[in-house]
From TrEMBL, chains A, B:
Aminotransferase class I/classII large domain sequence ranges: 33-382
InterPro entries to which the protein is assigned, alphabetical: Aminotransferase_I/II_large, AspAT/PAT-like, PyrdxlP-dep_Trfase, PyrdxlP-dep_Trfase_major, PyrdxlP-dep_Trfase_small
Family (UniProt): Belongs to the class-I pyridoxal-phosphate-dependent aminotransferase family.
One Gene Ontology MF term: pyridoxal phosphate binding
Protein name, as recorded: Aminotransferase class I/II-fold pyridoxal phosphate-dependent enzyme
Needed cofactors: pyridoxal 5'-phosphate
Keywords, comma-separated and alphabetical: Aminotransferase, Pyridoxal phosphate, Transferase
Pfam families in the cross-refs: Aminotran_1_2
Organism: Chitinophaga oryziterrae
Gene Ontology biological process terms from the UniProt entry: amino acid metabolic process
Length: 410, 410
């Protein structure tokens, strides 16, 4: 039998999905599982967005332009204009989800053996795309104590080697929820200019900012040829299944190269491009309600977490994720145990161990990521479950006097 | 400014799309262009398939399972059963078009530096996916004189080196239209078993066979662990824009590896999975009419081509492509010239130079690919244009005595 490739072996399993069998087993036992583990929002996809597809009346489901329908790209120009991002439609290549935008950027800008520098914790699937592209993710650690703020410029200077060709951020951040400030982006600009690096900016959660305005890497003056924006309609319009994203840059050589990758796979999905185009026409206040909803969920989640003995959760500035430090020995064990061996009033909660979001071994061992994609009532119930679980978990590290045994060390 | 990657430079441009600016210029001059250059069928997507999407009533456009909706995969099992292919739904991974199935197979089975052996002429985008995966396409030449039949076993034996890890075929073939016989597939089986190779079988045109029954590589007994089927709904149901395909194999290690690639990109498009699922429920005789239509188009095309002085076009057994040898000096020049400098009654025709489908330099220089994706009346008009063009083309190689000057040599 022929063997699979080394790349196939090296390809990481999804750290989020490996707990799925335990959740399924819990459900079979009649236990209700609150899913705070994945970024699948429960928010309804806006009706006009779905209706645009449902009312479409073409006769042939044709390939679109490899860069996406021109009408959609022109519409996206008006979308970006709202954020003072000035573009032409030819600077936008519509991709199959944000995922493909990331893969295309890796492939077009980096060669096998090159490296991309990412603040950790980071979106774990960057690892998968790196393996596909034969490149390596190097990390620079951000810390829960500072709410996962951007590491200092000196730390970047120390981390940069000749193999590093790009810095990559997710802003606001998945998994930390941290919203990078304009000042932090200016630091990145200096570093990228000094070392001639690309800046890959994943801005999937642009609209969901609670502690300030979003500042896009596309607005860094003088960095136009270095910045590549990865975008997606998945979270913005609760349209994850559409698989429509975009790669945006003013660097013509990158556009030309990415276009060749886009042509090889022929076109992005046609149905969801119709949805994406309709989404740009939603009233501008569409996000007000959604943002207020996420913000109030965040408030409930973070407040309840920080009231639990030994728990610390910095208040996230954007997206819909938070990372909390728990008084536990091992987040992977805990997240499995809470599904497999625990329930409270026939309920439990599914969380993501933060270890999957760090590259440095040992980091995140007492941290979990929580996605606040459920309504507030469910979040409250989930937090009650978590609180009870922390009281009885065999690997708890909280002492009777309130001090934490091991947790702080990790 | 940071530079693009070597991979980005090596990535081939689409050989089909490079003539697009000339076609656009012709249209601006008021010339009607018959598009025989791309595999975008004019056949309407079946109404029940589009209606399934239009009548869908979900509220949230969610991620599907990374392997595709289970209901769709179970439906695909019944589809494959019609061809005596026995499977479980867990042996099917739904992909974003057939394109992604090809990329996943390359990535999961081959490492950088490995090679895949493909009979040429071949679908040019295999080159693009090979560059993405860091692998190399090696070719074994099939010949227009034999209608592009599979090269002999001895030719395969000569072509196989330790770097070759897989043989890849497209059956029926794009770009030649050749339908591989069961006997030819048995030859491939012997070669694959002897050298422990994967057999990648792209069967996008399975339903469109005119000269015999389709025999799937999945039905090669004893080769179950070597065969990977790449499939797509694009041509089958004239649903190219859906971007739904599938990777099918009985090799569990490959399924496990491919699943990790599938998880990294989260899920295939949701809308078109609904379309694909509805398509399996079309009446089984749905293809009778479509196939009869393509076959009658083929008959018109091939007959008219072979009546032109100095032209030879073998009769294709399947798909909707034909390769014709023309009495011309250079197919690339000719295909540009016919758009740029020729028209007959304000009409012209767009063809694909066959050079783009060969890897061996010089081959295909007097051959073009024609996709019979237009109605018969348009095909007739296009053939009249082509016939007139061949009379006046400055690089024509046909002499007054009927002999061809250079064409046969290439």
């Amino acid at each position: 039998m022929p063997t699979i490739s080394k790349r196939g072996e090296q390809m990481p399993s999804s750290p989020i999905r490996k707990l799925v069998p335990y959740a399924e087993a819990a459900k079979k036992k009649g236990i209700k599982v609150y899913h705070l583990n994945i970024g699948q929002p429960d928010i309804e996809t806006p009706k006009p967005v779905l209706d645009a597809v449902r009312h479409s009346n073409f006769k042939v489901l044709e390939y679109s332009h490899s860069a996406g329908n021109e009408s959609y790209r022109r519409k996206l120009v008006t979308y970006y204009n709202r954020f003072d991002i000035q573009l032409t439609h030819e600077q936008i290549i519509v991709t199959t989800g944000g995922s493909e935008a990331i893969l295309f950027a890796f492939m077009a800008c980096l060669d096998a053996g090159d490296e991309v520098l990412v603040p950790e914790p980071f979106y774990a699937n960057y690892n998968g795309f790196a393996v596909e592209a034969g490149i390596k993710v190097q990390t620079i650690t951000s810390h829960i104590e500072s709410g996962f703020a951007l590491p200092a410029m000196e730390d970047f200077e120390k981390a940069i080697t000749p193999r590093i060709k790009a810095i990559m951020i997710c802003n606001p951040n998945n998994p930390t929820g941290y919203l990078y400030s304009r000042e932090e982006l200016e630091v990145l600009k200096q570093v990228c200019l000094r070392h001639n690096l690309y800046l890959f900016s994943d801005e999937a959660y642009r609209e969901f900012c609670y502690t300030g305005e979003h500042f896009s890497a596309m607005n860094l003056e003088g960095l136009e040829n270095n910045v590549i924006l990865m975008d997606t309609i998945s979270k913005r319009y609760s349209a994850c299944g559409g698989r429509i994203g975009a790669l945006v840059t003013k660097n013509q050589a990158v556009l030309d190269a990415v276009m060749k990758f886009a042509q090889a796979r022929l076109s992005p999905p046609s149905f969801a491009q119709i949805a994406g185009e309709a989404a740009v026409d939603l009233p501008v206040n569409y996000f007000d309600e959604i943002k207020a909803e996420y913000q109030s969920r965040r408030d409930v989640l973070v407040e309840m977490l920080n009231k639990m003995p030994g728990v610390f959760c910095p208040n996230p500035g954007g997206a819909f994720y938070a990372i909390a430090r728990l008084p536990i020995d091992d987040a992977d064990k805990f997240c499995q145990w809470i599904l497999e061996s625990f329930s409270y009033e026939q309920q439990t909660v599914m969380l993501s161990p933060a270890t999957g979001f760090y590259a440095t071994p040992g980091l995140g061992k007492n941290e979990v990521r929580l996605a606040y994609v459920l309504n507030k009532e469910d979040i409250r119930k989930a937090m009650i479950c978590l609180s009870r679980a922390l009281e009885v978990y065999p690997g708890k590290t909280l002492q009777r006097n309130g001090s934490v045994l091991l947790g702080e060390k990790h």
